[in-house]
Amino acid sequence: MQKPCRKSYSLTRPVPPTIICVRHAQGQVTSGNPIIHNLSVANQSIPDPDLTPYGEEQCRHLAQSFPYHSSVELLVCSPLRRTIYTTLLGFKPEIDRGVKVIALPEVQETGDVPCDTGTDIAVLRKEMEGKPIDLGRLTDGWNSNIGKWSPAAEAVKKRAREVRQWLKARPEKEIVVVTHGGFLHFITEDWAGYQEGLGTGWSNVEYRTFQFADGEDDNASITETAQSLAARRGTEKPLTQTERMELRETVEKSCEADEVHPLQAKV
After folding, report:
1. Do residues 118 and 124 touch, judged by C-beta distance below 8 A?
2. Highest mean pLDDT among 19-28, 48-57, 97-106, 239-248
3. In the sheet that 18-23 helps form, which strands lie side by side, from edge to edge?
4. Which stretches within 97-240 are classed as H helix?
5. Is 187 in a helix, a strand, or coil?
6. pTM for the structure as a whole
């Protein structure tokens, strides 16, 4: 399979990395019979759910079928358990060759329900003891759902922009970001395919490849590569930047009219 194509930039400016965004594998909300966490409001009451057995199987398949294992230079994931374990299981080939895993709180989910609220630092550190993941960027309050971590749309947009800026400045050439169905729409600013009932247009363990837009852009905008788009949509014509922004505004206004934040308590 072809590698993600990379743009040509001036020799005076570093080449921004290629970003491969991945949605986590299927998560559950019980430790007994698995109940999928995003199929109903009732299923969202258990804090920070683990993967289902099927989710673990999805990760094993990802580890075998993902085409870019050899070129990924950094793994970034949300500090929620389902994203951490998706990364540790699905990207084991990278970990085995020494690629670092960074838990980045800014890529946590957009809601404030228990299943979208992360585990306290001390508890998470104990669980992850001996596992190849860097939790050093977690600070007290990262799972508080207030301030910077609020589910309010403007707060989520701001941290999504911060994530893009941080990624753009990284020295690695190819970075995987394992995050959530809701947050993926904010970080990519792409709402095409969004399904209100599911709170996302991304499937479990789906991955898409992005490159940073040309020019100096404080927003650090990213655009899906033609190869990535073609792989999942065939010859369908992609939306223009204007159409993407209009679609985002439509989704947000629709959710505001229902007094529900876009994607909150749904992913």
Report:
1. yes
2. 97-106
3. 101-103, 74-77, 174-179, 18-23, 207-212, 222-224
4. 121-127, 153-168, 181-188, 226-233
5. helix
6. 0.83
Reply yes or no on whether the pLDDT at 217 is more than 60.
Answer: yes
Q: Are strands 174-179 and 18-23 parallel, antiparallel or unpaired?
A: parallel
pLDDT at 171: 97
**Percent of residues, the chain, with pLDDT higher than 90:** 66
Q: Is 222 exposed, middle or buried (0-12, 13-18, 19+ CB in 10 A)?
A: buried
Res. 14 pLDDT band, cuts 50 70 90: confident
Residues 6+ apart with CB under 8 A from 248: 185, 189, 191
CA distance 28 to 85: 12
| Mean per-residue pLDDT of the chain | 85
Q: Which two tokens stand for residue 261?
A: 């934040």
CA-closest candidate to residue 265, choices 200, 219, 217, 169: 200
- So what's the pLDDT on residue 262? 45
- The burial of 168, by beta-carbon neighbours within 10 Å (0-12 exposed, 13-18 middle, 19 or more buried), is given as middle
Angstrom distance (rounded) from CA 24 to CA 194:
17
Q: Say if residues 119 and 143 touch (Cβ distance below 8 Å).
A: yes
**Euclidean distance between CA atoms 219 and 223, whole angstroms:** 12
pLDDT of 249 higher than 60: yes
